[in-house]
Design the sequence.
């Protein structure tokens, strides 16, 4: 049966058809839908892990037991999982294991553009890269075969365009495999120095050599000889762009297995074509290795090492043709940056926080609340990676204290519930242990929001909707050593309460924790519950002072007077509380 | 690849561009075409611009449309086609929903909403259809079906009558919304 699937759906389907039993992931654009789709199948275990390292270790455990397993994450997630990934790569793996990394050339929803293909080189494992949805499905099956044949983890690398583009896929039946025999074998599985030392030469001399032989003969790497004036070596979506633009006017070496590279195939192909181009998004991963083989090729001299490619880029760079613009106009659409939603519980708290922007250094984190930095709120000063809000606040505060700096003497670390579970707890524990007094803010909206509502340990449900124990955030803070009297829980819709909590956090002399508690406004039960709650402007009272607009709420519209869009307003009353002339009224129950 | 057709949909998060593209791509697939569709997920729920690109034909390679090659652009919000009008091919068609969504950046003076947008389009492109899809949907009793009104207009503009769109709509939308959406499709089709 043919159907249209995104790359992420096809990866999930491929894993299912390959007989995967256990899978674990932490949500992150563009990888999230892999696990969401996989969780819909019967007879498998799918889960949201608290972070990518845990996901990778869960998959490794299932693999040791002899089951097929995978872990999925966005590119920066593999940094978190790197310890598990790099060390499990020393094992002689048992059940097939695939680690899926979804990279983001173009950075639609990421803090960096790192090229995770280097992790395959670094970890000395096989690397697979599909170019469309059908290959996402088929190559997952190959990946498990490679893993089991060569007893290695396999890195499966996709990019945003592959993950989120849909193309035609033909599906097949699931094959269920019995567990592979598990034998206790310390030499293969107990990575203490004596054993690791013996494993390393085996990996270098045997596994990598065998993988390279396979790469030179496998069906994942294919040659297509047409016109030989131009030769193209390409991976991923770049292959599709090249084929679109150059068609049969070029010859292709399409690489689906990019570590180890098929050296013999590359040499043969290079000898057949006049001018050889290597087209790859991000870093010159293939190009550098191809040049090291002594082969002359054109890569990053011509193509950028940053941002997404496009068919027009390839047209321009290879054919030197820039199409004349068809239609142009000076008229511009208004800016539409992403913004905290109407009724978002983060808004009210950030509105009050922004009033301290000259006194407090705000150290943010990864999630919807990174939008607290933009527009009118101005309540974030920096952002590094997941969990860094707390630990970097710790370093900043300590340096401020020791140097007796006179500016920004107070630091707030601001983190969401899911991110706190992911990697904030360790930072909090570290700060209490090392006695650094600053304020941690945990914005608890009971869901992983930015990636589109995934359950987490605090939400009381698993990915399958089954009831789970809900982690108690105040209790975790107390367990880290925060004193009971230094924890305050506020409703972020309540500006007075938020203001009072921020003041206490600002004045505190010990580590202080503010927890804002209010579920995401877009959660279905919340929408239902608040469907009839609205705020509206009394135009007779509105003096158009625009103070309410400082909340940055997208439901507020400015004409002669301010008005509120009834469709998106959920009656959170933040604007009502800001309005100095009481022109905004609450309606509905 | 001249035999490949390119459809470019632009809207603002929450306007239902995704459902429209789902109906379109299923229609093409079931009628024997190769289809690719590109969307960007992520922060689009939060009031940002949402684009969906659909390409269909005998064989499609790139999932994204090249500048200057779209056969049709459908703007679900009237100013949004300004952002991508350079993707339209010479002689291509423009469908504009006469509906304005003011972003907060306009309210706070960080950007401005362009004046006389419809006139700009008319002066620029020969084949323009302006449609009050929001008003039509409102009269039908549910503004949510605005996207299917626009689908009807697109089908007429691209002369895609060989595909049974009403059957596809009834398969894809929830059962209780089938009649509403079929009405919406017809209204959009006739308004051309």
Sequence:
């Amino acid at each position: 049966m043919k159907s249209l699937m995104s790359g992420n759906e096809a990866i999930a389907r491929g894993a299912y058809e390959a007989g995967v039993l256990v899978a674990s992931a932490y949500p992150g654009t563009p990888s999230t839908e892999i696990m969401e789709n996989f969780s819909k199948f019967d007879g498998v275990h799918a889960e949201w892990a608290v972070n990518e390292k845990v996901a990778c270790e869960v998959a490794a455990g299932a693999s040791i037991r002899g089951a097929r397993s995978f872990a999925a994450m966005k590119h920066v997630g593999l940094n978190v999982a790197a310890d598990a990934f790099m060390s499990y790569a020393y094992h002689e793996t048992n059940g097939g294991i695939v680690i899926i990394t979804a990279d983001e050339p173009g950075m639609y929803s990421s803090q960096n553009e790192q090229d995770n293909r280097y992790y395959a080189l670094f970890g000395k494992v096989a690397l697979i890269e599909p170019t469309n949805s059908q290959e996402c499905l088929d190559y997952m099956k190959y990946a498990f075969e490679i893993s089991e044949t060569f007893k290695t983890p396999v890195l499966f690398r996709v990019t945003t365009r592959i993950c989120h583009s849909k193309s035609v896929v033909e599906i097949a039946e699931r094959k269920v495999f019995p567990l592979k025999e598990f034998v206790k074998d310390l030499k293969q599985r107990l990575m203490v120095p004596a054993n690791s030392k013996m494993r390393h030469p085996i990996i270098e001399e045997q596994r990598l050599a065998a993988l390279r032989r396979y790469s030179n003969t496998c069906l994942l790497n294919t040659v297509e000889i047409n016109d030989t004036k131009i030769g193209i070596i390409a991976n991923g979506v770049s292959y599709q762009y090249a084929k679109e633009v150059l068609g049969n006017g070029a010859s292709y070496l399409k690489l689906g297995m990019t570590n180890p590279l098929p050296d013999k195939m590359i040499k043969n192909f290079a000898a057949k074509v006049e001018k050889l181009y290597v087209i790859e998004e991000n870093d010159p991963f293939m190009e550098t290795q191809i040049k090291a083989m002594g082969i002359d090729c054109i890569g990053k001299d011509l193509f950028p090492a940053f941002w997404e490619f496009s068919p027009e880029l390839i047209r321009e760079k290879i054919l030197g043709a820039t199409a004349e613009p068809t239609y142009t106009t000076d008229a511009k659409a208004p800016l539409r940056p992403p913004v905290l939603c109407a009724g978002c519980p983060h808004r009210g708290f950030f509105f009050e926080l922004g009033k301290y922007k000259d006194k407090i250094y705000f150290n943010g984190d990864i999630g919807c609340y990174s939008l607290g930095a933009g527009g009118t709120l101005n309540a974030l000063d920096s952002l590094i990676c997941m969990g860094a809000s707390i630990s970097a606040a710790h370093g900043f505060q300590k340096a401020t204290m020791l140097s007796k700096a006179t500016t920004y003497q107070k630091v707030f670390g601001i983190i969401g519930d899911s991110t706190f579970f992911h990697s904030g707890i360790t930072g909090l524990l570290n700060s209490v242990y090392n006695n650094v007094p600053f304020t941690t803010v945990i914005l608890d909206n009971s869901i992983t929001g930015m990636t589109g509502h995934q359950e987490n340990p605090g939400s009381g449900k698993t990915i399958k909707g089954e009831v789970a124990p809900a982690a108690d955030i105040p209790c975790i803070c107390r367990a880290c050593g925060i004193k009971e009297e230094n924890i305050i829980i506020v409703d972020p819709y309540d500006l007075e309460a938020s203001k009072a909590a921020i003041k206490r956090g600002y004045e505190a002399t010990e580590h202080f924790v503010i927890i804002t508690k209010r579920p995401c406004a877009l959660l279905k039960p919340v929408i239902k519950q608040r469907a009839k709650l609205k705020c509206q402007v009394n135009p007779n009272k509105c003096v158009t002072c625009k103070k309410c607009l400082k909340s940055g709420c997208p439901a507020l519209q400015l004409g002669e007077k301010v008005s509120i869009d009834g469709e998106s307003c959920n009656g959170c009353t933040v604007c009502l509380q800001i309005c100095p002339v009481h022109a905004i009224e609450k309606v509905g129950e | 690849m001249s035999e490949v057709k390119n459809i470019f949909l632009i809207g603002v998060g929450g306007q239902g561009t995704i459902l429209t593209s789902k109906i379109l791509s299923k229609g093409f697939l079931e009628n024997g075409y190769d289809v690719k569709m590109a969307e960007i997920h992520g922060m689009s729920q939060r009031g940002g611009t949402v684009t969906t690109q659909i390409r269909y034909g005998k064989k499609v390679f790139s999932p994204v449309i090249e500048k200057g090659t779209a056969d049709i652009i459908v703007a679900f919000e009237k100013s949004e086609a300004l952002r991508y009008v350079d993707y339209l091919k010479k002689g291509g068609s423009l469908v504009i929903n006469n509906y304005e969504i003011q972003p907060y950046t306009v309210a706070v003076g960080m950007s401005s909403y362009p004046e006389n947008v419809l006139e700009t389009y008319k002066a620029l492109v020969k084949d323009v259809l302006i449609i009050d899809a929001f008003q039509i949907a409102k009269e039908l009793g549910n503004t949510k079906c605005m996207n299917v009104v626009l689908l009807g207009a697109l089908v007429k503009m691209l002369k895609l009558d060989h595909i049974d769109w009403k059957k596809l709509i009834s398969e894809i939308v929830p059962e209780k919304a089938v009649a509403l959406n079929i009405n919406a499709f017809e209204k959009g089709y006739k308004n051309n």
Remarks:
- The mean pLDDT of chain A is 96.
